[in-house]
TrEMBL record:
It comes from Pseudonocardia zijingensis. It comes from the Bacteria. This is Alpha/beta hydrolase family protein. InterPro entries: AB_hydrolase_fold.
Amino acid sequence: MEDNRSTYVARKRHRLSDAEARRLDELAQQDRSWDEEVEWRILSWLPDFVDPMTARDWARADAETPLRLNLACNRALSAETGAWSESDEQSRWSAAAPPVWIIHGSGDPRPIDGPRTLASVLTQADFHELPGAGHQPWRECPDLVAKVLANVAAHAANQAL
């Protein structure tokens, strides 16, 4: 698990300039005004997108949403799941029985082996790697996501018969 986290952090940093990475670190260590919060969110989410021409606009649109982030919950969840061994995690997921469709953008800075392993452990899972997409594939490759969702709908319709 830690290897995935360190890989993600390294990939995320690689997509930021040195000045952006320094500013992100600076903002993370302080209480932030709303404008600084938006800046911190933009720098945090900028690496999630593949296309640098649209990344800043999409990160800004998300960052300016006036909703509070529950960082305490995120840290608690990360600490809890980070303590799980790989076998613990796989046994938890293998107990899930509903059909699952996992979509992962090939350009997502988060390592693909986590979602791919999850798909292999679940009893009814389909894994879809979308080329040219990052962490928000519905924005970067909406046509590819639409095809996956059409397959999900067709599967659900067949199950209902």
